[in-house]
Amino acid sequence: MVKVGKTTRSPAERAAELSAATGLPTPFIVVYEQLFEDCTEAEAFVHALLASKGFRVAENREFFSAPANEVVRAIALAPGAIDVDINQEGGEGAGLIPTAVTGGALANLKPPVTPSPEPWRALYEEAENHYGGFGDYLKDYEEALRLYKQAAILGCLDAYLRLGQMHHLGEGVRADTNAALKYYKEGARKGLLYCYWKMGEIYLYTEAIKGSEGNEGISKTEKCFELYMKACRTQLGDKNECVLKFDLLVLDAIFILSNDAPWRKFKDSKDILEIMNKIWRFFIEFREPLIRECERRIQLDEDMYKDLEELGHGDMRTPGDVSIYQQLAEILRSKGAKPNNASQPSTYIAGTE
């Protein structure tokens, strides 16, 4: 049985304090310690990782029925470790970590192995299966929500998008805009820049369109969208452009250009129209990656129709039907060729998926 917990004091002092409690058969000993920039975040990570492997004894306790090697590996994966030699002679932690030199029952404790780059992957994939009801899984928003939270703690950025979405839409939990914003803000803070866009959408449809000209909601909306646009201008094309999520931005563009987009009811508002003009000009500026994503989705649809036809379902295409991705690609191509006519998003995309 291993206790994994944080302390802002000396680990030896904390172990002695815990050992003073009555009823303990043996005193606590410090097996391993690591200094972190944020011990609360590190503790949550280690707890989530060990729990995902079935080692947790109880949800509200810090005890784990796990081999010491597994616990050490989990600590080695935690973010924000400060690399200092806490065993140097005379140092504060001198002599606390057992080694092969000191001998004893823990002398064979193996050092951490090379960390897996994605300790959250299995949790996230299981969460996606529960969320969508894929394969043999039943759709279960509550279980998906629990798994997404664990995956987020372990460093999965995409989990923050799902958590924000689920709290915004009330999937598996009571709809809560503030909670959705909290997850999006944390996702953006950790590097998933597309979360800024999602925050802008929330502020646009919950505050900006409900207030008077120049209200605080307008300011928040503009700032969030501008932060995302700035990130696109600086990071598109580099190895980290995946955090911009152009595959999802395509869907946002289609919704904004649809004839039933909520902002169109407020197009007489000077502030709202100015925000939408900026967004539209942004879409034109980045039309090439958006068109590429449209073409990718068009090809996926074409492959699906071919597969269905081979399975004996016949040609399920509707004659003369133009997909929403084809419509968006054509709009971006035509407006991009005539930038002077692309000052406002007056064009509509018909149809939904």
UniProtKB/TrEMBL annotation:
SUPFAM superfamilies: HCP-like (SSF81901)
A Pfam family hit: Sel1
Boundaries of every Bacteriophage T5 Orf172 DNA-binding domain copy: 1-78
Alphabetized Gene3D superfamilies for the sequence: Tetratricopeptide repeat domain (1.25.40.10)
Keywords annotated in UniProt: Repeat
Name the record gives this protein: Bacteriophage T5 Orf172 DNA-binding domain-containing protein
Organism: Thauera terpenica 58Eu
